[in-house]
Amino acid sequence: MTRLLTVAVNSLLAAGLYAEMAYGLAVIYGVMRIINLAHAGIMMLGAYVTLTLFSRFGVDPFLAFFLVGPLFLAFGMALYRTVVRRLPRGGGAPTMGSLLLLFGVWLVLQNFAYLVWSGDTQSILTSYTMRSVSLLGVRVGVPSLLVFAASGASLLFLNLLLRTTYLGKAIRAVTQNRDAALLAGIDAEMISAVAFGLGCAFAGVAGGMLSTLYAFTPDFGRSFLLKSFCIIVLGGMESVTGVAAGALVLAVVENTLAVYTSVPISFQDAITFAILFAALVALPEGLSGLFARAPRLRGAR
Amino acid sequence: MPAEPLLSVRGLAKRFGGLLAVAGVDFDVARGEVFGVIGPNGAGKTTLFGCLVGALRPTAGEVRFAGEAIVGRPCHAIARRGLVRTHQIVRPFRDMTVEENVAIGAHFGRGAHRGASAARAVRAVLERTGLAARAGALAGTLTIGELKRLEIARALATEPAALCLDEVMGGLNPGEIAGAVALIRAIREGGVTVLMIEHHVHAVAAVSDRIMVLNFGRKIAEGAPAAVLSDPAVVEAYLGSEAPVEAA
Amino acid sequence: MSRLGAAAAAAAALAALGAPLLLGRGTLNDLWNLAFAVILASSWNILGGFAGQVSLGYSAFLGIGAYTTVLLSLRGLDPFATLVPGALLAAAFSVVVGLPGFRLRGPYFTIATIGVGEAVRVAASSVSFTGGSSGVRMPAGSFDFGRNYLAMVGLAIAAVAVAALVRRSAFGRALAAIRQDVDGAEALGVDSTRYKLAAHALSAALVALAGGLYAINFQYIAPGAVFDFRLSLSIVLMPIVGGIGTIVGPLLGALVVSTIQLKLLELPALRDSYLFIYGGLLIVVILFEPKGLVGLAGRLLAALRRASAPPRTAGAG
Fold it and tell me: Would you tell me how many other CB atoms lie within 10 Å of the CB of residue A170?
């Protein structure tokens, strides 16, 4: 019973964080049909910016999000305008070019972090980093709770934006039916820039959250990119709810394995991928037309 | 006792979400026949072809080809057994030459030609489809008429037993349509059974032995072209969208 | 390939094999590295370039080859005899990865391969028979650089020849068809999964052979070296910079990238900037010349031809 509770509480907490980082990938994919491979690099950069705000200016990491979010929104939009926009367009399916281009961006970001912050392992130690509280009899770290609260708040805020503002509605429209939305006169360039910015903002904030939980280096973020990808494959990228559901599935499986089996922590990523592959084999025609031979409403190139 | 049909379809249905694109269709096609499929836009014709060749998985129903149940088999396996379709929106391999495009069909279709025998098969198909002069051209540089012929040539090179032609006359001028009609007749003369979806009702009537009419995924008529085109149900179905006699 | 191209290739191959007679050890070391890079780039190109399935997980195959060689040599096998089981193991592993992986289309497959590379690296560092993260050393024995050099250069020549043969064959045409339109290829009878798996296995085996030769020459391997993500990265970078899907492209790319690695990155000022250089190269190539150096050369040739030809339609346009 205690173990079950442990799994339940830890899964829920982890799912909040996972949803935050996966949403960054999902919104860009939904609007532009591009997989942002630089996602990992942007999370890494988010962690370092949060660290700098904390160590240089004494800003609490959880307050820093109010700066990190807008900063990375601007950064993402700038990245879109200067680099991503110049990609040759590839119709409905994501192109290999976009993937490799953003892979290049990721490498540049890594090198940038290496030069600015060195390759040393960094971490953020606040007064509450080591504190924990009891939740339903389960000890949970205070940072984990704060991360959950912050990602919950930001996703709710986002959902509100998507449902009430013009930009939000436009993003949802393009995600659900790109051609129809564009025919209806939505400015694709504008929406793409905003979506890319939003995706980077979420990645940056997620990186900041990760920095309060884990140590990091410029190489950081790869396994979280893989988790994010796993989540959007599981949950689809149509909606915030889908992403949250995918995040919960991944978190539950990971925590169940961690509590009930003796799989070493270092194998966690391998498990994530086992889940991904299992999902692909079990649901070959399932989710979002990612899979071979799924019916697609796509014309000739 | 009549010969077993080459293709036999029973209760075939395909659902996309809430839309029943094909709603339980039965028909048989005899060996050597030209079988026309017509119907207003959105009647489910292309979806039907997709289900036959395995590009789409039917929601329900049975398809027997040359005596074998083929539902659930992968597209390439069905193509290799000799049931091949062309695409309404042409999809050549644009970075390959015309010759290389056709060679894919010769190598991997029912003929499974390699080496010199593949080269001969490709040459023969290019001659038949009037593309011999364009053999070395990149597919991306062809005109729409040539692309339509390339689409047929690739499928023919697989040496199909039955060929499903999806609107191969769409976008062609009257002269090219006459050429396409002649080509389809020649294909049938070569022993290939032909199923064809076509908007040009006169052209279908001219080459088909029998015609089936689909409307909202259901078969509303089937039989000899003249009888089917004068069927009141067919006329009404077309009046809802377009008159069949005007279409050509 | 044209007759001229074939003659040039044969001359280059002979020159590389005969180089030990004329050149010093330092230069031969560089050539050994170049040959290693050529094998990786040309092999990756069979799946990534011909079939368009870009994998970022090729260091897994390199590592499998290297570890098989070291671990079997430690059990008394002749190092060169261990190359074959290493190649077979890598091919088998490529099928295990490919069966679920190829259900994913293009870019989704690519992401999954990052995970595979990661999982293999983690596994090699965590289990005991690989020596964990501290690595393993070859058994003490006769080390003969001359022999190692000839083996690597010979394999490089073989890898390029295999790639050239594949490209001209029906198999190669199936891969090209899959790259351009997988549904269209299936509609004509191409069993896309089977050919992708075959291309994956062939290139994995070649890369594993290179990994085995790498271990024989370096005498020591560790997960950080052979399963390094950066290695996977340079395997991808070389064919893309040179010209993806061509025969000459991976050779040019291997030359450029290994020159950067051996010469440019040795400079103290640039040692910490290799990701800038690699990332920047990738961005520049994708944005400005997706066909790489081969595409650039083609454009230059066309421009030269236009410039030298008499202007026929002056003022038109």
Answer: 22
